[in-house]
Specification:
Number of helices: 9
Number of strands: 8
Order of helices and strands: EEEHEHHHHHHEEHEHE
Strand content: 5-15%
InterPro entries: DUF7856 (IPR057178)
Strand order of the largest sheet: 2-1-4
Pfam families: DUF7856
Keywords: Coiled coil
Structural class: mainly alpha
Distance between the termini: 19 Å
Length: 278
């Protein structure tokens, strides 16, 4: 693969080949990356479209986590550890889990108010019944007393109906609250499972390319070591980034800002891919 770089304004040729040096052109790295992605009109970089892993691998000096680079390099080579199926299942389950926000305070207050009202009206009914009985014993007119008792009894019946409804509503709210708590606990378990399976997948991917990484470190400047237990990179992060770029299957050129190579040609030879130096 060769790279052709042109000025987007006048079409002038800025570089052509596997090793293109743009340092004298005053072009920055982000402008080149944008051009590689096809997002620039100021600069044209004629090359294959970058793969999905190029963003993490194509710029060794951009500060991306070195272990992320190694994992991306393994994925670019087509490695798919078996644990990824478990990871995908856990992620799907986590995405599908919905948790209802349940507040039982309103139904608790409704239930308490309904209970208080029932107690008050029961006392009112008892008082009205006693007043009616008294007037009957006195032989007095009971019309108003009977009406008062009937009205109090009706309001008590309505209050008791409301109490039953409040109890049912509060029971339902408590049930939803329990379900929400259980869902939150399930979410925590799923989050733990996703995190664990993600670590397992990263370790498996790093293990797949560990030998290739060691060989790549020997081919680039600096020292770095890939550890799989504990999982991590020991040594120079830039060296690790260059090694990851070397072992990756990249469809677009590396944009080099590292100053690690004597020349752009040396960088292209060491990394095994076209290089644009800025």
């Amino acid at each position: 693969m060769r790279v052709v770089v042109r000025d987007g304004d006048d079409g002038g040729l800025l570089g052509d080949g596997r090793a293109v040096d743009l340092r004298a052109e005053g072009v920055d790295a982000e402008a080149v990356r944008a051009a590689v992605r096809g997002e620039s009109t100021a600069l044209i970089v004629d090359c294959p479209s970058p793969s999905r892993w190029w963003e993490r691998l194509g710029s060794p000096g951009d500060g991306t986590d070195p272990l992320d680079r190694v994992v991306a390099a393994a994925r670019s080579r087509g490695h798919h550890p078996a644990v990824e199926r478990e990871l995908a299942a856990a992620e799907r389950a986590l995405r599908s889990l919905s948790i209802e926000a349940v507040d039982t305070d309103p139904t608790r207050r409704r239930l308490a108010d309904a209970g208080t009202e029932v107690e008050r009206l029961r006392e009112e009914v008892a008082t009205a019944r006693g007043r009616l009985q008294s007037r009957r014993e006195m032989g007095a007119d009971t019309t108003e007393a009977e009406a008062a008792l009937a009205d109090a009894t009706r309001r008590l019946s309505e209050a008791e109906t409301e109490l039953v409804a409040a109890e049912q509503a509060h029971d339902a709210a408590q049930r939803r609250a329990r379900e929400a708590r259980e869902a939150r606990e399930r979410r925590l378990r799923l989050q733990d499972r996703v995190a664990n399976r993600r670590r397992d997948a990263r370790r498996a991917l790093a293990t797949e390319v560990s030998e290739a990484f060691d060989d790549a470190v020997d081919a680039v400047p600096g020292e770095a070591t890939l550890s799989t237990d504990p999982l991590g990179i020991v040594g120079c992060e830039v060296t690790a980034a260059l090694a990851a770029a070397r072992i990756a299957d990249l469809d677009a050129p590396v944009v080099d800002t590292t100053d690690r190579f004597d020349s752009v040609a040396a960088a292209a030879n060491s990394l095994g891919v076209p290089v644009v130096r800025v």
